[in-house]
Amino acid sequence: MKWSLAFGLVFAVVLTGCTTSAGSYSSAGLAPIPGSITYNGQPRTKLMKSPVGSSFPHTFTDQWGRQVEEIYIIRPDRSLLIAERHYRPVFSLDDD
């Protein structure tokens, strides 16, 4: 009985820790790289018509010729957060 109570308590604490930060954008995000919208700082124009928390993609070619896709999230202060970055393969093995 003590073990199941202890397990339940630990599980509840872990679950609470996972759910409390679900909607928070306080993370610094990924560091900008050349080609990122935020590479030289935040853009001067603010995205006033877009809702806070919305996201949008940006695709560019980095300095090594790789295709990069970044996903940005609009923070409450209208600054941009790089939430995800994906590098697309240069070639595919199943090309004909």
TrEMBL record:
Swiss-Prot/TrEMBL keywords: Signal
Protein name per its UniProtKB record: Transmembrane protein
Signal peptide from the UniProt entry: 1-22
Organism for this UniProt entry: Rhizobium esperanzae
